[in-house]
Specification:
The chain is mainly alpha-helical and 482 residues long. The chain has two domains: 3-30 and 64-358, no CATH class; 367-480. The chain contains 23 helices and seven strands. It has a five-stranded mixed sheet with strand order 4-3-5-7-6. A two-stranded antiparallel ribbon has the order 1-2. Helix 20 links the parallel strand 3 and strand 4 (402-403). The protein is globular and about 80 Å long. It starts with a helix and ends with a strand.
Length: 482
């Protein structure tokens, strides 16, 4: 084996080991969304079929979601700790695929290895996938593999793999829409620049675009019939976009994308647009353009957009790294080339590691899980529990009870109204107004966790002191008794 193959294997093992180490340090998964995916996996495992109805979300609602990832996880559930191990195996494939894309782009193995190493420490990838059960752990490697196949589409094996992944991606994650849009921008930019698209590549793009479109129409047919064109933003209410966008700043973007990928990636795009391999740079830049356009229109949530910015800026960083290494090799200090490379990698590692784990947090560790477990044993099976929208899946998973609202807004009954009513119930001083909403929605328990207080910027619920109507059953649970 060649040295770079050994280094790639070592990088995969290190990435997998480090991620698994941090994952096993904590008993619970990172956040509410992880438990939404976990509930879906367990439902598929129990029913041995894909889920079309969720009896606990919003008190009961239809489900329209790609579930291939969840099906694979359910199939592999015989593996001990499969929910911890399998997603980390998938996500640890990213550096390997990044290496091959970078090698095709730069023809420089050293620059490609450094880029692959940098891709293992993208902060937003850690935030979205570390210690989580996330479809992104499979969707991201699939998308990157499709990009690599498109770069080598003239070879028959890559053409076949590209077609197979075009069939599979829509069943893994809705990010297939973003990849479709990227292909569209890629084609438009090439045509506008009078750059010819080879026959086989053109046919592969057209086939991929329409096959993914067809499968998405099948998966989201109920959504499209109910919401029409507005379903592109997953029916996320404006209040939720405002909630996340208002707390986001330029300094946040520097850290969460990563300083090295952001700086080197932008410079790499500049270099690539003046490079002979310009078409490949346009291909890697198209998802960045797509994300920025969707950001401007507020049609994509922050975490998804920044995730794809971080990944594709890391890929274009390969050109900057090649330029830096090439420049150093012709200076008077070229005799210390190996030392320079080692120092360069060390700097990337320091920035990447710090940024990755600075933003990582485990929200579920702060919950009184025993309070939720108490509800499972001491409440009616049809009981509805009030919580913030970003806690609903945690409620349903640990208590086995219906939530009033959660973060899956597609096909949800009146999510905008429920968001407003949840805020009223937590922030109003009027007991009669809160009770009217609670009775109408059959709410029997109210959660007041640290996350609830943070979401609604409150310290306590003003009216629960009335003991004739509210019993403080557990430290974070109130029961409605009137």
């Amino acid at each position: 084996m060649k040295k770079h193959v050994y280094l790639l294997i070592l990088l995969f093992v290190l990435t997998f080991s480090v991620r698994l180490f941090f994952s096993f340090q904590l008993e619970y998964f990172a956040n509410d969304e992880a438990y939404a995916q976990l509930r879906l996996i367990e439902s598929i495992k129990d029913a041995q079929n894909f889920v079309t109805y969720d009896p606990l979300s919003y008190g009961g609602r239809d489900v329209a979601k790609p579930q291939l990832f969840h099906g694979i996880m359910a199939f592999l559930s015989f593996i001990p700790f499969y929910t911890k191990i399998i997603p980390e195996v998938f996500i640890s494939l990213i550096p390997l695929i990044v290496y091959f894309i970078a090698a095709e782009l730069t023809k420089d193995k050293t620059a490609s290895l450094i880029t692959a190493f940098m891709s293992s420490l993208i902060p937003i990838v850690s935030k979205v996938t570390l210690n989580q059960v996330s479809p992104y752990s499979l969707a991201i490697p699939a998308i990157l593999m499709m990009v690599y196949c498109l770069m080598k589409i003239s070879e028959n094996k890559f053409l076949i793999l590209f077609i197979v992944l075009s069939f599979l991606l829509p069943w893994i994650h809705p990010s297939s829409f973003l990849f479709m849009l990227s292909l569209l921008f890629y084609t438009i930019i090439l045509v506008s620049e009078s750059m010819e698209i080879s026959g086989i590549k053109r046919e592969a793009i057209i086939f991929s675009f329409f096959s993914m479109l067809l499968f998405n129409l099948v998966i989201f047919r109920k959504v499209l019939l109910q919401y029409g064109a507005s379903s592109i933003n997953q029916n996320i209410p404006k209040q939720i976009f405002d909630y996340y966008f208002s707390s986001f700043s330029l300094s946040d973007s520097l850290f969460i994308i990563g300083v090295a990928p952001l700086v080197l990636g932008i410079f790499g795009i500049y270099l690539g647009l003046h490079d002979k391999n310009r078409e490949s740079v346009i291909l890697l830049s198209s998802p960045i353009v797509a994300v920025l356009v969707l950001f401007l229109l507020k049609l994509i949530d922050l975490s998804t957009g920044i995730l794809f910015l971080g990944i594709f800026l890391t890929l274009t960083s390969a050109l900057s790294i090649r330029k830096i290494l090439s420049y150093f090799s012709v200076t008077k200090l070229s005799a210390h080339y190996s030392l320079f490379v080692a120092l360069f990698v060390f700097v990337i590692a320091v920035f990447g590691f710090f940024s990755s784990f600075y933003y990582y947090e485990n929200e579920v560790e702060d919950y009184a899980i025993e309070d939720l477990a108490y509800l499972r044993e001491n409440s009616d099976s049809n009981a509805v529990v009030l919580s913030a929208f970003n806690e609903g899946n945690i409620i349903s998973y640990f208590s086995g009870r219906k939530n009033f609202i959660d973060s899956n807004f597609l096909l949800a009954p009146n999510p905008v109204q429920r968001l407003s009513e949840a805020e009223v119930m937590y922030k109003t001083f009027s007991e009669s107004k809160a009770l009217e909403i609670m009775k109408r929605n059959h709410i029997q328990f109210v959660l007041l966790s640290d996350k609830t207080k943070e979401t609604y910027d409150i310290e306590r619920i003003l009216y629960v002191g009335d003991r004739s109507c509210f019993e403080h059953e557990r430290p974070t649970i109130y029961k409605i008794v009137c």
